[in-house]
Design goal:
Strand order of the largest sheet: 15-14-16-17-13-18-21
Bound molecules: zinc ion
Structural class: alpha/beta
CATH class of the largest domain: Alpha Beta
Distance between the termini: 38 Å
CATH topology of the largest domain: Rossmann fold
Radius of gyration: 25 Å
Number of domains: 3
Shape: globular
Helix content: 25-40%
Number of strands: 21
Strand content: 25-35%
């Protein structure tokens, strides 16, 4: 979908200069009254403004072509919307109108506003209508086959089908970024969705009016096996189906997943413990269940290993797998009780989501089982209140011998080596000029060449500017100091503690990869809080070497 990427940021010199909305002093003043501008600068051909709305705390990123006309595209969670602003009496008013529009669209999500030329705007609209005419009804099975094979060929992790009254858009998530694949007629989409849900899990009758989960295996002719987990949820204008595709036999060794050597050593020590709890946390799409599965696959064969998950994604010869629906609390409670009688050396629990599961996991961890599980939080510090909310006791979490370690991770896109763009930091300029004119990254990562994503891309990266994804992580072995912080309800100081000890937090880990030219700092900040000198202390101390 070359038009999709090209259209949103291609700089245009064809439009008339002047009439700059942001550069005029009046314009900036007006923005500041509406949103809090916390960074401004020029990046290549663009002027960049990062702002926050005080009410919702949503981040707004405005990328302006240096010669803007009044045509805009807004992106939210990688979805692109074409926006034609009302004609206003002044550029500043027009910009304010657009910011108000972004705020109303954001629902708390980060949104990006791209100011584009008439030509680019038109090419986006044309691209959309071209895609609309390519939807041809085919035999359902053939269509499903074609869809999955294409997704697998592009190494997509998810297929999204957004079914609306008149049509459906199919999107692939590749390297974390969602991009449109094709638009099909509503009737075609309905047949695909119905077939997907009715042929699986005992042919349960599929209804668009209720939320349904399913999982099934998909085998290709070449012998590759994939596990597909799909969820269909009704929404106001139709239904949205998200299918996650995972190659069953492709288990990435932890050594190449993106952890640092120190983190791997910590991870090895906490997984070698024969008793206690290991929590692997992260948001959706952070690779936490992949990490857990990989750890499980490497447990030596002389140990008894049980797994309780929904669904079982990878079947291993030395593991007893128990599949339990995540939303069925009583069934989960019963299976967890069985686990006590099974007396495993290692118990892998897909995810702790209920009090019953949390209580059973606690008893087992005390009783001499090594329990490893995942939890849905965005940092190590946030894992503690979450675990307590799920029914674990602060006293347990802070006692020696119970909690062995906590991991938190995210996946971040890797820049394409062939087309990434250097950020120019000019050492002979004043600190003020560097901050204002080239953004504040120069100050944070002083002395290191920083690179940005080239949205035009090249042939090596399918015109995306992105070549793969990798982890940023924080791995914490529980120590006396950390247990004290947890016991005194000071878990929020854990990141600071780690940085002071030279242990990488996600920020330092990401900063290290920014300084190696692997990450665009703005793409990292889509996942975690903005970089500050104070949250990358460990990385700055180590420099760009791989700690
Ligand atoms: Zn490229």
């Amino acid at each position: 979908m070359g038009w999709f990427d090209r259209s949103i940021t291609k700089p245009s010199r064809a439009t008339k200069p002047a009439k700059t909305a942001v550069r005029s002093k009046a314009g900036v003043a007006r923005i500041e009254r509406d949103v809090v501008v916390h960074r401004e600068g020029e990046v290549g051909d663009y002027r960049l403004i990062l702002a926050k709305t005080p009410s919702t705390d949503a981040r707004i990123k405005i990328i302006l072509d240096k010669n803007p006309s009044l045509h805009c595209l807004v992106t939210k969670q990688h979805e692109v919307f074409a926006v034609k602003p009302r004609l206003q009496s002044s550029p500043a008013q027009a910009l304010n109108h657009l910011i108000a529009l972004c705020k109303s669209m954001s629902d708390g999500h980060a949104v990006q506003l791209f100011y584009v030329s008439e030509t680019i705007y038109q090419s986006y609209i044309e691209g959309l209508s071209k895609a609309q005419t390519s939807g041809i009804a085919m035999l359902d099975n053939e269509k499903i086959n074609q869809l999955f094979l294409e997704a697998i060929r592009q190494r997509a992790s998810d297929i999204h089908i957004r079914y609306r009254e008149s049509e459906a858009i199919i999107l692939f998530r590749v390297n974390q970024l969602l991009r449109p694949h094709e638009i099909v007629e509503a009737s075609t989409a309905k047949r695909i969705i119905t077939a997907m849900f009715n042929t699986t899990k005992g042919g349960k009758d599929f209804s668009m009016q209720q939320s349904i989960d399913t999982s099934f295996k998909y085998n290709t002719e070449t012998g590759a096996e994939f596990m597909v987990r799909a969820n269909s949820s009704p929404e106001k204008r139709g239904v949205t189906v998200v299918s996650r595709i995972r190659n069953i036999k492709e288990l990435l060794p932890l050594e190449v997943a993106g952890y640092t050597a120190n983190q791997l050593a910590h991870l090895r020590r906490v997984t070698d413990k024969h008793q206690g709890l290991l929590l692997i946390t992260g948001p959706t799409n952070s690779g936490k269940s992949t990490t857990l599965t990989t750890i499980m696959a490497h447990i030596p064969r002389e140990y008894a290993v049980c797994e309780v998950a929904d669904p079982i994604e990878v079947v291993l010869p030395n593991v007893s797998h128990f599949e339990v629906a995540n939303d069925n609390d009583s069934e989960m409670g019963r299976v967890m009780k069985d686990m006590v009688r099974q007396d495993p050396d290692y118990l892998i629990v897909g995810e702790i989501r209920s009090q019953q599961t949390a209580h059973a996991a606690t008893s087992l961890a005390y009783a001499g089982t090594s329990v490893m599980t995942t939890m849905h939080t965005n940092s190590i510090a946030a894992a503690f209140p979450r675990a307590i909310k799920l029914g674990m006791e602060r006293d347990d979490l802070s006692v020696e011998g119970f909690l062995n370690g906590v991991v938190s991770q995210n996946l971040v896109p890797i820049l394409c080596e062939k087309c990434k763009r250097p950020f120019m930091h000019k050492p002979n300029m004043s600190a003020y000029d560097n901050q204002v004119k080239t953004g504040h990254y120069g100050e944070i990562f002083e002395g290191h060449q920083i690179f940005y994503r080239n949205f035009d891309g090249c042939s090596a990266c399918r015109k995306t500017g992105i070549k793969g994804i990798t982890l940023i992580a924080e791995v914490l072995e529980m120590t006396q100091d950390v247990r004290k912080l947890v016991a005194c309800k000071q878990h929020y100081l854990i990141s600071e503690y780690m940085e002071s000890q030279g242990i990488y937090t996600k920020h330092s880990h990401a900063a290290n990869k920014v300084m190696q030219g692997m990450f665009d700092p703005t793409l990292v900040e889509d996942k975690i809080d903005p970089f500050k000198r104070s949250n990358v202390v460990a990385a700055l101390r180590a420099g760009a070497i791989n700690a």
